[in-house]
């Protein structure tokens, strides 16, 4: 990528920081971001998206820092962000909402409008382009969110649980989209199936601290020997998280 955190600290409330002193460069390529509920994944992704600013320390993409006002527009043009909870703009159709995000990210209106249909086609929602987002199901809204993150050709995609609520077919479509992307991707999920086919790197966060960062193959090797083939990723994940429990 890399989006780099340097000595970054952030908490929603004083005296309860979510991250305390995070120095870490997310790797280039496709990275899956794992960790238990409340680990701080969404917070870290929001900081990386510049939606939140660190209270101390910095978050940067190349030379551009989220704490410098002059850098923000360019930073945001290069980075796409799918939050965990999508805000639908009242009364907008799927196509209007996707085009609106393209425009917010610096595209001209015509290009954003043209690109919006292609982005909706990729998530198999072209036939619902004229429907109001508010009236769509949770999984359909999630797919509109994925289309929003694809519309403006960002260099980095930050995706917070993009497949939550998607049915199995749409999860497969999403994984095909992911496989065809040439952008850097940082994606949080609780779904550890197909890690080897989909991602280059694994990062595990717990208690606001990076507990593991490495190649998918090295991560999977953390599973105890004798683990059933279908449970290797899960066992590797527990190995990283249980070490935390042992250290606590
Ligand atoms: N808006 C908020 N106001 C106050 N505290 C918050 C807020 N959002 C998150 N937190 C707290 O920050 C901590 C980290 O939450 P975060 O959502 O980043 O975790 P997560 O790893 O993304 O969890 P999950 O897997 O459940 O989505 C949790 O203790 C949570 O309660």
Automatic annotation (TrEMBL):
Annotated ABC transporter domain residues: 3-232
Lineage top rank: taxon: Bacteria
Family matches, as Pfam families: ABC_tran
Annotated SUPFAM superfamilies: P-loop containing nucleoside triphosphate hydrolases (SSF52540)
Record keywords: ATP-binding, Nucleotide-binding, Transport
GO molecular function terms listed in the Swiss-Prot or TrEMBL record: ATP binding; ATP hydrolysis activity
Chloroplast recorded as keyword: no
PROSITE patterns, A to Z: ABC_TRANSPORTER_1 (PS00211), ABC_TRANSPORTER_2 (PS50893)
Family: Belongs to the ABC transporter superfamily.
Protein name: ABC transporter ATP-binding protein
Native source species: Streptomyces poonensis
Lineage of source species: Bacteria, Bacillati, Actinomycetota, Actinomycetes, Kitasatosporales
């Amino acid at each position: 990528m890399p989006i780099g955190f340097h000595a970054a600290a952030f908490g929603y409330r004083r005296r309860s920081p979510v991250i305390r002193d995070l120095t870490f460069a997310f790797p280039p390529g496709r990275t899956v971001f794992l960790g238990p509920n409340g680990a701080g994944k969404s917070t870290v992704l929001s900081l990386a998206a510049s939606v939140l600013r660190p209270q101390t320390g910095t978050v940067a993409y190349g030379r551009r820092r989220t704490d410098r006002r002059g850098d923000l527009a360019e930073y945001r043009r290069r980075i796409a962000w799918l939050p965990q909870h999508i805000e639908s703009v009242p009364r907008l159709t799927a196509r209007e909402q996707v085009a609106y995000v393209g425009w917010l990210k610096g595209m001209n209106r015509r290009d954003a409008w043209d690109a919006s249909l292609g982005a909706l086609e990729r998530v198999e929602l072209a036939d619902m382009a004229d429907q109001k987002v508010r009236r769509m199901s949770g999984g359909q809204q999630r797919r509109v969110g994925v289309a929003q993150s694809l519309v403006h050709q960002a260099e980095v995609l930050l995706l917070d649980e993009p497949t939550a609520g998607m049915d199995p077919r749409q999860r497969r479509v999403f994984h095909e989209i992911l496989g065809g992307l040439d952008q850097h991707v940082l994606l949080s999920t609780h779904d550890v199936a197909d890690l080897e086919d989909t991602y280059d790197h694994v990062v595990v966060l717990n208690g606001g601290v990076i507990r593991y960062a490495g190649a998918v193959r090295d991560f999977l090797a953390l599973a105890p020997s004798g683990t059933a083939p279908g449970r290797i990723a899960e066992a590797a994940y527990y190995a990283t998280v249980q070490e935390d429990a042992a250290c606590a």
